[in-house]
Amino acid sequence: MPTPLRALARVLSGSTYALLGADALRTPGGRVDQAGPTLALMRRALPMPADDELVVRANAAVQLGGGALLALGVLPRLSALALAGSMVPTTLAGHAFWSIEDPAARKMQRIQFHKNLAMIGGLLFAVLDRP
C-alpha cells in the first residue's frame, strides 16, 4: 500500500505531465516549428517519421498517457521512465538557450532548460522508487 505522501507526489507529478501532454496533443502549434531543427538533427541518427507534427503529437501522447498512469500509480516506474525519455527531446527542442542571441531571452530559456532537467531528475527518482 503506497504511503499518502508517495501517492500525493505521483498525483502532483503525473497530472502536470498529463495536462502538458493534453495541451500539446490538442494544439501542437508553435511546438512543431520549435522542434523542427532538433528533429532534423535526431533524424540523422534515428529512424523517425518525417512529419514533425506527428512526432510532436506522439511525444505529447507519451506525456499524456505516462502522466495519467503515474498519477494513478499504475506502472509508476515504467511511466516515469517513459516520461523522462519524452522530456529529453522536449527540453532540447523547446529550450535551446545556446542558440539565442538576446541575453534576456537566452537567460529565460536557460532557466526553463534547467527546470526541465530538474523534472527529469524527479522522474528518475520515481523510476528508482521502491515502496
Automatic annotation (TrEMBL):
Q: What's the short name of a Pfam family annotated to this entry? A: DoxX
Principal location listed in the UniProt entry: membrane
Its GO CC terms are: membrane
Q: Quote the subcellular location field of this record.
A: Membrane
How the protein sits in the membrane?
A: Multi-pass membrane protein
Is Transmembrane found in the keyword set? yes
Which keywords belong to this entry?
Answer: Membrane, Transmembrane, Transmembrane helix
Q: What is the protein's name according to its record?
A: DoxX-like protein
Q: Which organism is it from?
A: Blastococcus xanthinilyticus
